[in-house]
Write a structure and sequence with these properties.
InterPro entries: Homeodomain-like_sf (IPR009057), Recombinase_CS (IPR006118), Resolv_N (IPR006119), Resolvase-like_N_sf (IPR036162), Resolvase_HTH_dom (IPR006120), SSR_resolvase (IPR050639). One of its GO terms (molecular function) is DNA strand exchange activity. This is Resolvase. This protein is α/β, with parallel strands linked by helices. The chain has 2 domains: 128 residues, Resolvase, N-terminal catalytic domain (Rossmann fold), CATH 3.40.50.1390; 44 residues, Arc Repressor Mutant, subunit A (Orthogonal Bundle). Helix content is 50%, strand content 12%. The protein contains 7 helices and 5 strands; from the N terminus they run βαβαβαββαααα. It has a 5-stranded mixed beta sheet with strand order 2-1-3-4-5, with helices on both faces. Helix 5 packs antiparallel against helix 6 and helix 6 packs across helix 7. The model has no long low-confidence stretch (mean pLDDT 87).
């Protein structure tokens, strides 16, 4: 039996191209995860691995769809091999049923991990360069310092009955933010 596995990194990505390629490759069952390769929990991969039996082929479109690190790829490959299942990678032409395929798999896995590491390093370098130029990444603050002061004053203000004059919802409505934002800023103060 040919078992196909595909993965997209985010919910926004579409797995149709992978599914079409796996169907064209003659896969009897296809499992698709919508999760980051770094996540330990990939339920469809777990199902696919449990489905695989001795003599089966485990088919993926690209090596990076199975995992991001060489260690993880090698562990999965070893798991498949120990259960008598061969790994077939369509785009790279890898078939681990022979020694040359196993060697090529290991080399391609190492290159994929290196490529990912270089991308991460370039991202960190770019962020450091931006910080050096005074640009700070991340989400903008929901409230400016003056608004935080106003929120705190409104929150602390008591009515004639000794109870709070303004509810957190009143403060949030006044400043145009969610209640949770007000709570977050009040906790910091």
């Amino acid at each position: 039996m040919r078992i196909g596995y595909g993965r997209v990194s985010t919910r926004d990505q579409n797995p149709d191209a992978q599914e079409d390629a796996l169907t064209a490759a003659g896969c009897d069952r296809i499992f698709i995860d919508k999760a980051s390769g770094k996540l330990a929990s990939r339920p469809e991969l777990d199902k696919a691995l449990l489905t695989a039996r001795e003599g089966d082929q485990f088919v993926i479109t690209k090596l990076d769809r199975l995992g991001r690190s060489t260690k993880n790829l090698l562990e999965l490959s070893e798991h498949l091999r120990s259960h008598g299942v061969t790994l077939v990678v369509l785009d790279q032409g890898i078939d681990t049923s022979n020694p040359a395929g196993r060697l090529f798999f290991t080399i391609i896995g190492a290159i994929a991990e290196f490529e990912h590491s270089m991308m991460v390093e370039r991202t960190h370098d770019g962020l450091a360069a931006a910080r050096a130029r005074g640009r700070v990444g991340g989400r903008k603050k929901a409230l400016r310092p003056r608004q935080v002061e106003l929120a705190q004053r409104m929150y602390d203000e008591l009515g004639d009955d000794g109870k709070r004059k303004h509810t957190v919802q009143d403060i949030a409505d006044e400043l145009g933010v969610a209640r949770t934002t007000i709570y977050r800023y009040l906790e910091r103060a």
